[in-house]
Each structure stands twice: as structure tokens, then as C-alpha cells.
Amino acid sequence: MAENYSFSVILEPQEGGGFTVLVPAFPEVITEGDIEQEALANAEEAIRAIVEYRRDNGIPIPADADPQVRRITLAA
């Protein structure tokens, strides 16, 4: 029976269009897409691949990370 996993992602709009997706639980997963749905679908595919790789190689699958977003303002 397949296990269900849930992971937080960070969706960043890009200045020139499109989105980048980061997965805090898996820092090695960075993907993108031209539209939000494509970026999230690519992230799901990447997460699925890393979970499968870890499971197949006996590497622990981490718990979801709890990303914290803060803003830093500075004069430059």
C-alpha cells in the first residue's frame, strides 16, 4: 500500500514570467514552469522521483519542513 506524503513548497514568481518552485524538505529539488499549474506539476514530479529514489536506496524520507518567510528591509 502506498504511503501519502505532504510537503510544503515555495512558489516564486519570476520577473520575466513563470515560476520557480523550491521544496524546503528537499533542498535538492528546484524546478520551474511557465504557469503556476505547470510549476506545481513539475514540483510534484520531482518530489515523487526523490521520494522513490530515497525509498529504493534506504534513505530516510524527511518530514515536511515548516518554511518561515521573513522580510528584511535595508537601505543600499
Order of helices and strands: EEEH
What general form does the structure show? globular
- Arithmetic mean of pLDDT: 94
Instruction: Note the total helix count.
Output: 1
- Output the strand order for the largest sheet: 1-2-3
- Using the CA coordinates, give the radius of gyration: 15 Å
The oligomerization state is single chain
Number of strands: 3
* Distance linking N and C termini: 55 Å
* Broad CATH class: Alpha Beta
Outline the low-pLDDT stretches: none
Helical fraction: 25-40%
Main sheet: strands, sense, barrel: 3 strands, antiparallel
**Strand fraction band?**
15-25%
Category by helix and strand content: alpha+beta
CATH architecture: 2-Layer Sandwich
The CATH topology name reads Double Stranded RNA Binding Domain
Tally the structural domains: 1
How are the elements arranged and paired?
Elements: E1 10-13, E2 19-22, E3 30-33, H1 36-56
Antiparallel strand pairs: 1-2, 2-3
Q: What would you note in describing this structure?
A:
- This protein has a three-stranded antiparallel sheet, covered by helices on one side.
- The chain contains one helix and three strands.
- The longest helix is centred in the middle third of the chain and has 21 residues, at 36-56.
- It is globular.
- The chain has one domain (1-76): Double Stranded RNA Binding Domain (2-Layer Sandwich), CATH 3.30.160.
- The protein is of the alpha+beta class.
